[in-house]
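REQUEST FORM: STRUCTURE PREDICTION
Request ID: SP-0412
Submitted by: Lab K.M.
Chain count: 1
Length (residues): 635
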Amino acid sequence: MNQSYRLKEYSILFYRLILVYFFYFIARLLFFIFNKDLLNIDFISEFFKISYHGLAFDTTAILYINSLFILLSILPLIINTKAVFQKILFYIYFTTNLIAYATNFVDIIYYKFSNFRLTTTVLNEFEGETNGLALFFSFLRDYGYIFLLFIIIAWLWIYLYKKANLNPLKINNKKIYFGFSLITFLVSVTLIIGGIRGDFKKSTRPINLVDANKYVKNPIHAALVLNTPFALIRTINKNKFKKSNYFSEKELLNIVKPIKQYNKTVDSKPNIIVLIVESYAREYLGAFNKRYNIPNYKSYTPFLDSLAQHSLIFDNAFANGRKSIHGMSSILAGIPSFKVAFTSSSYVNQKIQSLVSCLNDYGYNTSFFHGAANGSMGFLGFGNILGLDHYYGKTEFNNNDQSGIWGIWDEPFLQYTIKILNTKQEPFFTTVFTISSHDPFVLPKKYKGKFPKGDLKIHKVVGYTDYALKKFFENAKKQPWFKNTIFVVTADHTNQKFYPKYKKGINRSAIPILFYKPDNSLTKLDSTLAQQIDIYPTLLDMVGYKKPFRSWGRSLINSNSEPFVITHTGNVFHFMKGNYTCVFDGKKAIGFYKIEDDALKNNLIKSKDDEMQTIENECKAYIEDYYNRIVDKRL
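STATUS: Completed
RESULT:
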């Protein structure tokens, strides 16, 4: 009779699903172990509490991934217990589960660089790459132990699966068999729908990435609540560019002030060179860390530290995105990247007022240099949208003998940049995007052992790129255009962290911003808040551009603008201004922290004051103006 009720089948199905939950817990445990210095969890009880809340997100991912397996297991097909059918189920179960499960292991490493769970937008970062196979083998070499760990766990999973065999069963009573199967099917479908949604309430939407923040006091811990398959599934074909109307257009203009205009007069238009240095977190540069009194601090940038003594530098600056293409859009177009990058959206193909278009209009020759394969990172395509006059990549350099894994080494490519700039008519504006300080952090053979190894893999290549910049400036000083040039040095995003200060939530996006003029007229340390989107209006102010233009940033040399920073973690917004950091989930504030509480430990939202309310309104207004302008194509 039990065979007709299919109790043996259902118990084994339950066992197989419990195995999935068990191995998702193992993946979460490994994610915690390998990233414990970034996650800052003080007690093991806290980890288990987070794991408990993570069950809802695991359930959604597991039910999505196993829906076909579950369906085939519960449908009354008579042959369900046959050996051939069970073998088919075996292959469906492990093909779907292991592919999805493997993404958790990718994140064990990737999280150290991105500080957020993988989403589908990450795939856009590698579009246009022509060295994918070389990169794969490079990553496999550096992180082979993670691959081996995955293989061992997959073997264990298969072993445990096979421990519960289902032998062929004879159906004694088909009426009971089909009747009970129908009831079980309806109950299972109901439970699956609820599990995928996260609950059975009609009043709530299906759980999403931002919901992970409900269960943690520290927003950093949201990454541990989540799992990578869930993050990928929930971001497939999601359009996050939606208009809202909390404010009137007049209110937005008053709060956000998206249209800027400056009146500075200059004797002659200076050239501009913007150096976007790959992965150059503020942590690595000594000149930007003097006031922080970090115990046993070591700098890896002797040249930039010396240049900073004659420059306007901002040691409280932040990136407005998490990837290289985010850095390009933030710096050159003043367009930050939030949950879904503007450059990855369907709205990217529109006319954009930017630093490039304004300087084109102002009589500048504009160019972009990037030593990787042409089209890599999406720079060529976005550069064409911005209206760059010229793009110079690996193709134009035309010498693979000087190439590393990602492309041309920084030292020869920076020298090539000077060679090309010598052919340009002044005034010119050029952006150089370096590549050598990129994972897997390999040095040219002739420089092995020359630079301090440091405490992280990236430290030695930070030293190499600093040296390449030194050689660049030494050569640039010999050129006739040097004295009439403004140099900007900043980073696209951050990377590996060593010091506890930079593992804290806010400082994970901390970067340097430096402006240098050879006449030493820009020499100051400024500790007010700054961000990548401020570079665009600052340069237009410096060169005497007097027409109105669209910018969400501010001129860093104009005291009339209030400092602020807006970033996105992949889950929530951080809006820093005045005395507070506001953590905003897209609709409302879910946390307020003292501006100096960079670890976001003490949430003050229960003591909300007028300044907090004002900051929340400003954050909401910036986000609304951002999305409305993008959707309405008013960039």
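NOTES: The longest strand covers residues 311-318.
Reviewed by: T.R.
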